[in-house]
């Protein structure tokens, strides 16, 4: 049981024994990426999700973001348990309800900066979700909202007239975060937002998400690289391994209490990192 989760706090995400799988073109081939996971995200909370490649964390993020069951190529399906996001049951959700629900979810997929529209300016890329919802939305109001977010992700306002190829990978990732937040979502799902970014710039990306979450009071699920990174922006972490959640709760408690072999390896790595930091400060 995850004792770190206050029972009286309203839940934005609630998962009970959730299983998610991918089906291949071969009828006899089924890949279960998430196997019976139970967790929750409270209103105004960030839950960090970490795990090795293939652990199921990206599938979990996509499912929470509303991508499961759409029928699009490469998307997963919920095959067991239950998942509630922003009050909606996700298993068997209708297309109309999904469209309405996803207006309240900001999604940053892996390497989202590379998915920006090359022929649109940065300002137009960020504003795109506004006009997808309402083509007649006031341009001045949209421009002001875009400028506020560009500043919030620590980019100069001059980039609004630039094109994606003119920005660095880290800058494009900040643009993707701004785009995900332009509609003021109640939930942000960010799948490894520092992937492929220079190690010296990763902390800035995570700090930006943390600052925006405090200012705008949204909830968030953020997939991250390591326990050290998770500690930087969240007090609670879910550790995935082989499609299972093998650790869930406050970061320090998860490290200290888990008996799972994978978790023990993470604990040793974290202790070694702390020891190296202590030695370097001498």
Second CATH tier, the architecture of the largest domain: 3-Layer(aba) Sandwich
Average pLDDT, all residues: 89
Shape annotation: globular
Strand content: 15-25%
**Could you tell me the radius of gyration in angstroms?**
19 Å
**By CATH's scheme, which homologous superfamily of the largest domain applies?**
P-loop containing nucleotide triphosphate hydrolases
**Helix percentage range:** 25-40%
What is the β-strand count? 10
Give the N-terminus to C-terminus distance in angstroms.
40 Å
CATH domain class of the largest domain: Alpha Beta
Largest sheet: 6 strands, mixed
Low-confidence stretches: none
User: How many structural domains?
Assistant: 2
How many helices? 9
What pattern of helices and strands is seen along the backbone?
A: EEEHEEHEHHHEHEHEEHH
* CATH topology (fold) name of the largest domain: Rossmann fold
Structure overview:
- The protein is an alpha/beta fold and 282 residues long.
- The chain has two domains: 11-104 and 186-275, Rossmann fold; 116-182, no CATH class.
- The chain is 38% helix and 24% strand.
- Strands 6-7-8-3-9-10 form a six-stranded mixed β-sheet, with helices on both faces.
- Strand 7, helix 6 (199-216) and strand 8 form a beta-alpha-beta unit.
- The longest helix has 20 residues, at 261-280.
- It is globular.
- It starts with 10 loop residues before the first strand and ends with a helix.
- The model has no long low-confidence stretch (mean pLDDT 89).
Feature tags:
about 280 residues, six-stranded mixed beta sheet, four-stranded antiparallel beta sheet, 10 strands
